[in-house]
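Researcher: Checking consistency across runs. Here is NADAR domain-containing protein again:
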Amino acid sequence: MEEIRFYKVSEPYGYFSNFSPHSIFIDNEKWNTVEHYFQASKFNDKEIKKKIQLIESPMQAAIEGRDKKNILREDWELVKENIMYKALKCKFTQHPKLMHNLLSTKNCIIIEHTENDNYWGDGGDGKGKNKLGVLLMQIRDELLKQVDDELIVFPPWIAFPTISQYDLFWRMGSGEEYLTQWSKYYLATNTIDYRNKYPETKEWEGIYD
């Protein structure tokens, strides 16, 4: 079975990296990268979380998150995989091009190839757990069961479930851009099938009209 290896953002498949410059929105908050959200989630201290959220680069966010002076939440080892999954799911549903890239890997084995990490990565020698790659494949397989078209753009209430239709988010920046992409996709597809598959929620009632 074909393998896809990734690590650095600048290299092929770099968009699978948690450092890739793709913001995510979780619980009505914006995070510059998956890495920012993951590192901040290690702590209960709101000041540390906010500090990491405001850091510009994912590398600096990672450094702050690994600083031993910051006290980890007690249940971190129990919840870290679920937190990573949540962040990755947002990343690949909120960015249609990334979702297409992920779905197009079909049944390839996705590996974070680095000797720097034998938990999230493969340890460089293939003996690591490759948990990041495993989660990416899990999300890919889940999405493949949901969609008929690899180029699909999910309706906003699925891609951004915590953001209200009336939030200013949709009138600027990435929110406005997403609505534009979604509208173009929706109007170009079989609208009846799409509406049946993704019925509007009560809050978004009338959006298809």
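Researcher: Does this match what you'd expect to see?
Model: One thing to look at in this run: Residues 156-197 form one domain.
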